[in-house]
């Protein structure tokens, strides 16, 4: 089992020319929903040499509004064309009645929100004819009337819909720090059999009038605390496909490759322990 | 407690303003004294994420007015015209007319045209792929009937004209360190953008070529388009034009008219 990295437009050429030794590439399908052109052309070329996963940001699973059938259709088109190993989406919502924020907004963790998310996950899985993974978000605020913890909400979403979970360890760290949640309690609530992918990324720290807030900007290297949590997680969960995620402040490809090699080493050690084929 | 729909609607409507959020929304948030700062992270994300998409679309406009001015215009634009689709690939379609509406920019009258060019470039980048017109497709038609056909331009083609030397302004700003001085009186400019393969091509063309391609785009036959091109530009030479562009990806098919 190998680690993968986010595929960014800046790296199309080096990836095609150098064919780096890397497990797989992940893309946001919304960046490939144009009619044609270089992004689709390059992705097709890269898909010949590597597995691909689709990490959607536009489904808005947690919205009170209905899913967008055109968007789902476009997503299905990409699933059929690129045959991704994994398809995932965030536990969040992102749109108003006639416009889109393009941000991942926080949910109030209540029973009615849970019903809505499960209904939408069912619809997505039905439309795509496959299981998806739901990713835990980074959040910066909490709603007073939430009825359950985020981890309970996530696990219940997966149980009721049959979806798996994408465990973003950076997001767990960011949200737990931001809300003073217990990281151990969060992680131990996630059953190993639900986790189909792990994300690792960097974040920044911003000062507030009282204390600090950690912001998930995917713009820097994975920090030491998150690497430590990752190693502990893999000890507990066993090997899980792991992605080095980067969406801003894109470095040279070699830097992402370097981080993926660290994750590879953790996975290889776990594979020998769990006697999983590498 | 607000319903799920009211809570989400209030939350996202407030992302578009800088007004203090009303009490009834703040009451929904867990507050340790920093709830407003925490809410403002989402406001900032909304402006920055979409503003970054706009900056990616309009690098030349940004370079011409500077990062700071671009950022404040982007803030205004994002609030006024938030994304209307699930992808950001073509976000910013109203930016050229938005720039026209800003009185402070009237001293840069060419700026909306630069934005039109950049929007056309990105449209071409994401446009449908199409096969290039093949020589045997043309060879199968007799010379006499050829001009009665139409020619289908590549679906990525955009024709943009300006009263200002748009091409020179744009080209001078594609590389760092260019100190070229361009006189705004150096006449109009006509630009054709097309992406036959993986590369977007931005070409400055004469008036005849511009009219010819525009007419073909609207469905005219080669003959009719040529006659109109000749009326505006008596020097337009169809044979020279075809020797360069008939099979270079500018066109994808012949069409019976």
Structural key phrases:
heterodimer; A: 278 residues; alpha/beta; TIM Barrel; eight-stranded parallel β-barrel; two-stranded antiparallel ribbon; globular; B: 257 residues; mainly alpha; 2 domains; three-stranded antiparallel sheet; 13 helices; 5 strands; elongated
Largest sheet of chain B: 3 strands, antiparallel
> Which strand-content bin applies to the residues of chain B?
5-15%
Mean model confidence by pLDDT of chain B: 95
**How does CATH name the architecture of chain A?**
Alpha-Beta Barrel
CATH superfamily of chain A: Divalent-metal-dependent TIM barrel enzymes
Number of domains of chain B: 2
* Major β-sheet profile of chain A: 8 strands, parallel, barrel
**What's the Cα radius of gyration of chain B?**
24 Å
Which secondary-structure class do the elements of chain A indicate?
Answer: alpha/beta
Task: Please describe what this structure looks like.
The complex is a heterodimer of chains A (278) and B (257). With 278 residues, chain A is an alpha/beta fold. Chain A has one domain (4-274): TIM Barrel (Alpha-Beta Barrel). Helices cover 41% and strands 18% of the residues of chain A. Chain A has helices at residues 12-18, 38-47, 69-82, 111-128, 150-161, 169-179, 183-188, 224-237, 253-274, and strands at 4-6, 24-27, 52-55, 86-90, 93-95, 100-105, 133-135, 164-168, 195-200, 204-207, 212-215, 242-244. In chain A, the strands form 3 sheets. In chain A, strands 1-2-3-4-7-8-9-12 form an 8-stranded parallel beta barrel, surrounded by 4 helices. In chain A, helix 1 (12-18) runs parallel beside helix 2 (38-47) and helix 4 packs across helix 5 (150-161). Chain A is globular. By secondary structure, chain B is mostly helical. Chain B folds into 2 domains: 7-108, no CATH class; 111-257. In chain B, the strands form 2 sheets. In chain B, strands 2-3-4 form a 3-stranded antiparallel sheet, sandwiched between helices. A two-stranded antiparallel sheet of chain B has the order 1-5. In chain B, helix 11 runs antiparallel to helix 12 (222-232). Chain B starts with a helix and ends with a strand. The mean pLDDT of chain B is 95.
């Amino acid at each position: 089992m190998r680690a993968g990295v986010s595929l960014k437009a800046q790296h199309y050429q080096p990836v095609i020319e150098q064919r780096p030794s890397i497990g797989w590439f992940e893309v946001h399908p919304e960046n490939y929903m144009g009619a044609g052109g270089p992004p689709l052309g390059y992705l097709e070329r890269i898909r010949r040499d590597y597995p691909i996963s689709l990490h959607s940001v536009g489904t808005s699973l947690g919205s009170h509004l209905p899913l967008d059938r055109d968007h789902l259709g476009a997503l299905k088109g990409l699933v059929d064309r690129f045959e991704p190993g994994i398809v995932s989406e965030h536990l969040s919502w992102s749109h108003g009645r006639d416009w889109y924020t393009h941000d991942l907004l926080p949910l109030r963790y209540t029973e009615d929100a849970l019903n809505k998310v499960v209904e939408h996950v069912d619809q997505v899985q039905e439309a795509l004819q496959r299981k998806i993974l739901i990713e835990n978000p980074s959040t910066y605020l909490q709603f007073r009337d939430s009825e359950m913890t985020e981890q309970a909400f996530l696990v219940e979403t997966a149980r009721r819909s049959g979806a798996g979970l994408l465990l973003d360890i950076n997001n767990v760290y960011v949200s737990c720090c931001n809300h003073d949640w217990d990281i151990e309690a969060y992680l131990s609530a996630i059953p190993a059999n639900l986790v189909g992918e792990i994300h690792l990324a960097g974040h920044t720290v911003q000062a507030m009038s009282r204390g600090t807030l950690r912001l998930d900007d995917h713009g820097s290297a994975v920090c030491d605390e998150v690497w430590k949590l990752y190693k502990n997680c893999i000890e507990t969960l066993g090997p899980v496909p792991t992605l080095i995620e980067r969406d801003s402040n894109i470095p040279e490809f070699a830097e992402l490759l370097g981080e993926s090699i660290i994750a590879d080493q953790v996975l290889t050690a776990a594979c020998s322990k769990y006697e999983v084929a590498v | 407690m607000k319903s799920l729909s009211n809570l989400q609607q209030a939350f996202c409507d407030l992302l578009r303003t800088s007004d203090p959020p009303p009490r009834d929304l703040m009451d929904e948030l867990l507050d340790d004294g920093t709830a407003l700062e925490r809410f403002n992270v989402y406001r900032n994300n909304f402006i920055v994420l979409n503003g970054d998409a706009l900056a990616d679309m309009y690098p030349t406009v940004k370079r011409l007015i500077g990062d700071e001015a671009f950022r404040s215009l982007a803030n205004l634009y994002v609030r006024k015209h938030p994304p209307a689709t699930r992808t950001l690939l073509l976000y910013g379609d109203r930016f050229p007319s938005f720039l026209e509406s800003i009185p402070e920019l009237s001293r840069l009258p060419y700026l909306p045209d630069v934005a039109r060019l950049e929007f056309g470039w990105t449209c071409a980048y994401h446009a449908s792929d199409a096969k290039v017109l093949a020589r045997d497709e043309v060879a199968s038609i007799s010379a006499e009937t050829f001009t009665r056909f139409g020619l289908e331009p590549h679906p990525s083609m955009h024709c943009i004209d300006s009263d200002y030397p748009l091409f020179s302004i744009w080209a001078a700003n594609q590389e760092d360190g260019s100190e070229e001085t361009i006189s705004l009186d150096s006449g109009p400019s006509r630009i054709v953008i097309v992406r036959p393969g993986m590369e977007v091509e931005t070409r400055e063309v004469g008036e005849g070529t511009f009219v010819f391609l525009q007419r073909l785009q609207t469905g005219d036959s080669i003959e009719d388009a040529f006659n109109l091109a000749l009326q505006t530009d008596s020097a337009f030479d169809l044979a020279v034009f075809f020797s360069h562009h008939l099979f270079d990806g500018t066109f994808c098919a012949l069409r019976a008219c």
